[in-house]
């Protein structure tokens, strides 16, 4: 079986730490092209992974016959570059948030359908073992009816992670459009939809820029959410957690509670109303800290979906639903009232 030819558009930190090493680690893939508007970045990755180098994605797409394209660019470019790649005949894995508006997301979905190609959004929280185990326990009725939840994704901000540091596109409204909500909040919106197995109907939020100076996007948000069955809870996304990262989720039900990524040793802790407890050691969640990079499972899932021509776990429709929750939260904060999805 011939290898799938992959191109990575955008050679910043997410490519360096996630996409490129995971493609390189997949025996069914060959990295054939790299693109970044800063030539030296693409060349640095070429030195490790090979492939031809480009500074113009349109030139890459016209010159190379690629099967897979990873779009690892500032948020405002996700939709146009993904659509161009789909139209060129490639399957696309796009970083989150998939787009900056619902209309952009729908155009991406339409391009994938028109060209008969897979579109996957890189929401890696669905592949975390503790999250998958929690979903199974809820489906099995282990904690009975779910009443409430709280989920948090907070750290000191992308300046310690982004290749451009404090000058990163993450902080610029015209390139990022969405701040901590697009960086972290959308991950948790997607996680809640996945773990709880239902959609959200109401969003109320306070979204602020109060932790960082000279940035033009949000950096601190707290959202109140309600599902179609009436489960209520909170989602926090923050670049203001400077001392320690928090990536925890707690789910409260009639028969017990589940604590996900809330303990350094046990990635899932279940406590039941009958007094019993079960602690699970399921490996560490992905972290942005140097030296803690492990495989996300995203690339392998994407490759398998393309190989078998099956819908990926997070296709365009799934990505759009999670994006819409974040857009509704920002609208709620701006208008000062609850938004019905």
Automatic annotation (TrEMBL):
Domain Gfo/Idh/MocA-like oxidoreductase N-terminal: start-end pairs: 5-123
Protein name: Predicted dehydrogenase
Cited Gene3D superfamilies: Dihydrodipicolinate Reductase, domain 2 (3.30.360.10), NAD(P)-binding Rossmann-like Domain (3.40.50.720)
GO molecular function, one term: nucleotide binding
Domain GFO/IDH/MocA-like oxidoreductase, first and last residues per copy: 131-259
Top-level taxon in the UniProt lineage: Bacteria
SUPFAM superfamilies in the record: Glyceraldehyde-3-phosphate dehydrogenase-like, C-terminal domain, NAD(P)-binding Rossmann-fold domains
Provenance organism: Pelagirhabdus alkalitolerans
């Amino acid at each position: 079986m011939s290898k799938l030819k992959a191109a990575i558009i955008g050679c910043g930190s997410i490519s360096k730490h996630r996409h490129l090493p995971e493609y390189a680690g997949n025996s069914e893939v060959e990295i054939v092209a790299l693109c970044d508007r800063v030539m030296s970045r693409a060349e640095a990755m070429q030195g490790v992974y090979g492939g031809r180098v480009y500074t113009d994605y349109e030139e890459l797409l016209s010159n190379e016959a690629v099967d897979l394209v990873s779009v690892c660019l500032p948020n405002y470019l996700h939709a146009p570059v993904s659509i161009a790649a789909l139209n060129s005949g490639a399957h696309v894995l796009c970083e989150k948030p998939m787009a900056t508006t619902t209309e952009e997301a729908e155009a991406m979905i339409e391009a994938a359908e028109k060209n008969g190609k897979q579109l996957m959004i890189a929401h890696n929280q669905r592949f975390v073992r503790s999250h998958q185990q929690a979903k199974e326990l809820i489906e099995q009725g282990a904690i009975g009816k779910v009443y409430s939840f709280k989920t948090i994704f907070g750290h000191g901000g992308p300046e310690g992670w982004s290749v451009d540091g404090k000058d990163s596109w993450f902080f610029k409204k015209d390139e990022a459009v969405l701040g901590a909500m697009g960086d972290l909040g959308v991950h948790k919106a997607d996680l809640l939809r996945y773990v709880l197995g239902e959609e959200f109907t109401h969003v109320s939020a306070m979204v602020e820029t109060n932790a960082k100076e000279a940035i033009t996007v949000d950096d601190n948000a707290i959202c109140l959410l309600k599902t179609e069955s009436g489960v209520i809870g909170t989602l926090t996304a923050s670049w203001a957690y400077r001392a320690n990262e928090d990536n925890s989720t707690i789910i409260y039900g009639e028969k017990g509670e589940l604590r996900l990524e809330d303990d350094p040793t046990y990635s899932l802790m279940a406590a039941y109303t009958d007094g019993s407890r079960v602690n699970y050691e399921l490996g560490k969640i992905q972290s942005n800290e140097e030296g803690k990079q492990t495989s996300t499972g995203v690339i392998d899932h994407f490759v398998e979906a393309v190989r078998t021509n099956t819908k990926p776990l997070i296709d365009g429709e799934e990505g759009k639903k999670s994006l819409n929750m974040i857009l509704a939260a920002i609208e709620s904060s701006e208008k000062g009232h609850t938004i019905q999805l």
